[in-house]
Amino acid sequence: MRVLGIETSCDETGVALCDERRGLLAHALYSQVRLHADFGGVVPELASRDHVRKLLPLVREVLAEAGSPAGGVDGIAYTEGPGLVGALLVGAAFARGLAFAWDVPCVGVHHMEGHLLAPMLEPSPPTFPFLALLVSGGHTMLVDVAGIGRYRVLGQTLDDAAGEAFDKTAKLLGLPYPGGPALAKLAAQGCPGRFDFPRPMLGRPGLDFSFSGLKTAVLHAVRDHPEDPATRADIARGFEDAVVAVLAGKCRRALRELGPRPLVVAGGVGANARLRERLGGIAREAGISLHYPRPEFCTDNGAMIAYAGLLRLQDAASEPRDAVTARARWPLESLRPPGVPAPESPPAAGS
Ligand code: KG4
Ligand code: ZN
Fold first, then answer.
1. Are residues 278 and 308 in the same domain?
2. Is the predicted pLDDT of residue 287 greater than 70, yes or no?
3. pTM for this model (two decimals)
4. Which atom of ligand 1 is nearest to the CA of 180?
5. Is the CB of 270 under 6 A from ligand 1?
6. Looking at the 3D structure of the chain, how many domains does it have?
7. Residue 21 counted as domain residue
């Protein structure tokens, strides 16, 4: 089976072709980062319009690179949610239209399931059960992954996502969007320890996160100190150290609670070098394996959607629906293993 994956949940247009036996055949990604840079964040309507422009050229590119005729595709998977609903609808309508024209099945995939399973595309994939830390611009969560579609959210952010905190703090420091990589670069020049910011939620039991207070602490530091380059770098370093300490501390706690098992890190913040260094230390200490997707699959991409869709379409019992569906919100825990129907949501009042 060969599945075309389509990702349009936010500001990256991703397309990929995944083969059941040969793995990933080709992938293409178009980032809208420059389009949104002047606005300091993603503008949903601009994102939707750009997905419309880029999807067809990217599909052509992927099919050509894989040497696969359109007729060689056995199924299509698209990101159904969570994400920006207009952007999702572009991908959903495009995928359903192609599936209708090619007369192949089509399935909507959960974006976070895609991120969780992305390390499966690497040469040494993790084995189930594993612990996953999902850290992106929209999500921060720790998930107990027992198998495909068997997810238990152990903790998540109560306010900002880790990537969002990086982006907002970078803005406070006058750095360009997207702020995460720029802030990390500045922090590398900073002095550790000069700004000892709070480690939110680390002192409390449980596995939830909170980053909005940390952002406020940075705001006060920026306001109360002179604006010289060294101070900005020290503030960036203090902020990064605090976020990394919290993420790593909660991973260690989750591993203690669940017992040793592979640790998977996915989402854009997983690219952070200092976080990788800290998690590497924890993995060595606990004697567990640590898994990341390759750098281009840490952020949003079509390959993870093609792969998750392949797993779901392979199951003969799963019955892909025909509707064009998009969900701004979609709890990860409502997913079921391939072939197991999700519980029906209660009928709307009055229906
Ligand atoms: O997974 P992703 O591409 O998109 C979402 O689904 O959100 O993650 C993007 C996020 C952004 O907030 C970006 O600033 C952050 O990941 N990010 C980083 C780094 N590279 C990207 N944060 C910290 N350090 C980095 N090196
Ligand atoms: Zn994502």
1. no
2. yes
3. 0.92
4. 14
5. no
6. 2
7. yes
Same domain? For 83 and 221 the reply is: no
* Token couple for 153: 């959210």
Nearest-atom number in ligand 1 for the CA of 137 is 7
- Domain enclosing residue 91, as ranges: 2-116+298-334
Residue 9's CATH number? 3.30.420.40
CB of 246 within 8 A of CB of 198? Answer: no
Report the length, in residues, of the chain: 351
Cβ-proximal residues to 276 (8 Å cutoff; 6+ apart), any chain = 265, 270, 292
Judge if 194 and 247 occupy the same domain.
yes
Q: Which of 258, 292, 326 represents a domain boundary (last residue)?
A: 292
d(CA 304, CA 51): 18
CA angle (120, 10, 32) in 5-degree steps? 105
Task: Give tens-digit pLDDT for 145-185.
Answer: 999 999 999 999 999 999 999 999 999 999 988 899 999 99
The answer to whether residue 77 is domain-embedded is yes
179 CB near ligand 1 (under 6 Å)? yes
What does DSSP assign to residue 9? S
Q: How far is the CA of 298 from the centre of ligand 1 (A)?
A: 9
Q: What is the C-alpha to C-alpha distance for residues 326 and 329, in angstroms, rounded to an integer?
A: 9
Cβ of residue 114 lying under 6 Å from some atom of ligand 1:
no
Q: How many CB atoms lie within 10 A of CB 308?
A: 30
- Residue 51, domain member (yes or no): yes
* Residues forming beta bridges with residue 110, ordered by sequence position: 81
- CA 114 / ligand 1 centre spacing (Å): 16
- Ligand lying nearest the CA atom of residue 137: 1
